[in-house]
């Protein structure tokens, strides 16, 4: 019996020892950095890609110890200090990427030439694709790509816009659609008249069937086909106790002149029928006579003229000031200047400890951490919306942008497509047109078609498909982009 008792005791002690050993190993693993981090000699964790980048990110330089001498690849530029490799295209781009500035040295950039299919911007020696020259979009920082564009010469069948910016088809002149950016193709046009049994929309050349007038449906852009309909057709089409809006809608007569636009065209609130406007009890009457939802004197402007926060409110108290050795909070409270930027929020809204301004304690690209009392890197890629248009790479104290294949980086953050400019293909009357989004020029792809409707474009092969309601067929055609 005595032997059994001590045997159980030794088993219990052995089990406790196993548990303690497991916990000690668990704690030691938990104290280390994650797999994606590098643990500095001082215990700090940094991203693994910050190792051997010629920057002391740990603070004790342990991330730069035992680093092998790196050899730059053929597509990279080796900085003069032989500590950094940067993409070759970053050399001579007016942006210093090497810490020693050797990628932008006058000696290295003086004799730089652009490839045959590129244009040299001049001052900063940057190169852009030749097709970007004279495309009405400034790509060089000095604007050189758009400063040497010559005046165009139009053919006999084309019309020259007054500003000499482009040529358009002669058939597009006076077609009631401005195709020149200065509207010169629609100037000095004779006033057209509509055919019999057609109605001409007011102040436009647009004609619609006369049967479309006063039918409760806006066919003219300015709604002139639905104006003066009660006079034109006699009695109102609305029943007793209803009010007919100018757009043909019917609303309750009690809703007329109540300060709310119930018709949708505001004709139920027209001043000619509402000489003395009285707002409903649940609405606020503004000084200009309009009615709005809102509460006066709540620091939220509801009236267009702002009268709900001025005319109806008591004058504000005299402006409060703090002494020279004090800091004023947003609510007017004064605190001692020594409590400003001390790591503890003393103002109700915390404006004495501005996070975005770092209280002047850190360099650009870093944020002060009041808990650790140290400057930490700001990840611009996560915190700045649209920092890069394509790919954003965060670095210690800064960030860089890269582009997807087929794009070129401009102004260090914006990626512009290399290739033909984007265009919109659309149906216009009996033609299919292409609108250039870079030059804002229209051009005909197919003309004098029967009645083209929906279309589809195979950009790769340059084929346009469209349905023709008159021919009752699906058509196709080849086009040069």
TrEMBL record:
UniProt domain EGF-like: residue ranges: 377-416
Record's bilayer topology term: Single-pass membrane protein
Any one GO BP annotation for this protein: receptor-mediated endocytosis
Chief place where the protein resides: membrane
GO terms under cellular component: apical plasma membrane; receptor complex
UniProt keyword terms in alphabetical order: Disulfide bond, EGF-like domain, Glycoprotein, Lipoprotein, Membrane, Receptor, Repeat, Signal, Transmembrane, Transmembrane helix
InterPro entries tied to this protein: 6-blade_b-propeller_TolB-like, EGF, EGF-like_Ca-bd_dom, EGF-type_Asp/Asn_hydroxyl_site, EGF_Ca-bd_CS, LDL_receptor-like_sf, LDLR-related, LDLR_class-A_CS
Keyword Disulfide bond: yes
Keyword Ligase in record: no
Cross-referenced PROSITE patterns: ASX_HYDROXYL, EGF_2, EGF_3, EGF_CA, LDLRA_1, LDLRA_2
Disulfide bonds: 33-45, 40-58, 52-67, 134-149, 174-189, 214-229, 238-250, 245-263, 279-291, 322-334, 329-347
Subcellular location(s) per record: Membrane
Residues of the signal peptide: 1-31
Single GO MF annotation: hormone binding
PANTHER family per UniProt: LOW-DENSITY LIPOPROTEIN RECEPTOR-RELATED PROTEIN 2-RELATED, MEGALIN, ISOFORM A
Protein name per the record: Very low-density lipoprotein receptor
Species in which this protein is naturally found: Holothuria leucospilota (Black long sea cucumber)
